[in-house]
Specification:
The chain is mainly α. It has 13 helices and three strands, in the order αααααααββαααααβα. The protein has three domains: 5-48, no CATH class; 64-124; 131-301, Methane Monooxygenase Hydroxylase, Chain G, domain 1, CATH 1.20.58.760. The chain is 54% helix and 4% strand.
């Protein structure tokens, strides 16, 4: 984000005043300060340093078990089987979402002169997308998870299908040396969702694209940084800054970045082709439960064939681009 000079000055004043208040509070014994934020990545680093907010706790959306607890609290007279079914259907919702839906459904039932029924809530929490879209999402997310296990990226913490027609695979990336091989592994894992769609369904959706946190955005950022920030690519030991959009105006760099991402998708496709039965079975299971925790995911991922695909195993992939005039691709 680019701020105008006067806005930067105002922001700096606000942050400085906030830090002064935090430092004064720190001198008061027994005082605990708790802050919440939906976008912690946008917080000024000075606010988060040791001595201010020492402990950072992520609160992801509740899983099916946690949602069962929310339903049990709101509907204590209903059977456990019904409440667990509703908990599974509501994956992707927050606790506040569930509470609001129950209150609205109760009001509608009262207006109709009857009691609230499980079917009232099943209709509300039915997935808005059809089974075909759910399957695409499940394949996409399981593709990420399988590539993660095959390449040793780190343990998978959670896989879920969200109600808005999207999904999420949460991993705890293991520390790496930052070599070119490490970055190529990460690129393959990021592109594995798209590769899974292509492998099983024969086409791809826009699911890998979208905003700045999308698969394509992350892959483009890494591939560009290889050449412009990390000294591992086209420009050798040179640092060209963090402006990816500006850097990608260079046709030679743009072609290399595109080729690197295409090769990552092809590599991911080979890994998934070697694990295709597992990919499809795991996706079917995710469609049923809609949310896998670390233990459930690991039970499936123990079957993953580690490393790249064996020789002779290939998968449908993109058509590789050619190197621009002036040199071979990295």
């Amino acid at each position: 984000m680019c701020l105008r000079p006067h806005r930067k000055h105002t922001a700096a004043q606000v942050i400085s005043a906030f830090l002064a208040e935090m430092d004064s509070i720190a001198r008061e014994e027994g005082v605990i300060v708790i802050g919440t934020c939906n976008h912690p990545e946008l917080i000024d680093p000075a606010v988060l340093r040791a001595g201010r907010f020492d402990m950072k706790i992520a609160l992801p959306l509740p899983d099916a078990d946690a949602l069962f607890g929310v339903f049990r609290h709101c509907l204590p007279d209903w059977s456990e089987a019904i409440l667990r079914d509703l908990g599974s259907r509501a994956v992707g919702c927050s606790s506040a979402d569930v509470d609001a839906v129950i209150r609205q459904a109760r009001a509608a039932a009262r207006w109709a002169g009857r009691a609230l029924t499980p079917e009232d809530l099943r209709k509300v929490f039915a997935p808005p997308q059809g089974a075909a879209i759910d399957r695409r999402i499940a394949l996409h997310e399981c593709g990420h998870a399988i590539a993660c296990a095959a390449l040793g990226i780190g343990p998978v913490r959670r896989i879920l299908i969200e109600r808005e027609g999207s999904g999420m695979t949460m991993i705890d990336a293991a520390p790496k040396h930052g070599t070119l091989a490490d970055m190529r592994d990460r690129l393959a894992q990021i592109m594995a969702g798209r590769a899974a769609e292509r492998l099983v369904l024969g086409d791809i959706s826009a699911g890998a694209g979208g905003g700045p946190n999308s698969d394509l955005a992350l892959a483009t950022g890494i591939a560009t940084a290889i050449h412009t920030q990390f000294g591992l690519g086209l420009h050798g030991p040179a640092w060209l800054g963090e402006n990816d959009i500006q850097n990608l105006r260079d046709p030679a760099l743009r072609a290399r970045v595109q080729r690197q991402i295409e090769e990552a998708e092809l590599r991911a496709g080979g890994i998934l082709a070697a694990n295709r039965p597992l990919l499809e079975e795991m996706a079917d299971a995710l469609m049923l439960c809609r949310d896998m925790d670390a233990g459930e995911a690991n039970d499936w991922l123990e079957r993953v064939r580690k490393g790249d695909a064996p020789e002779g195993v290939a998968a449908p992939g993109v058509v590789a681009t050619t190197a621009p005039e002036g040199g071979a691709l990295e």
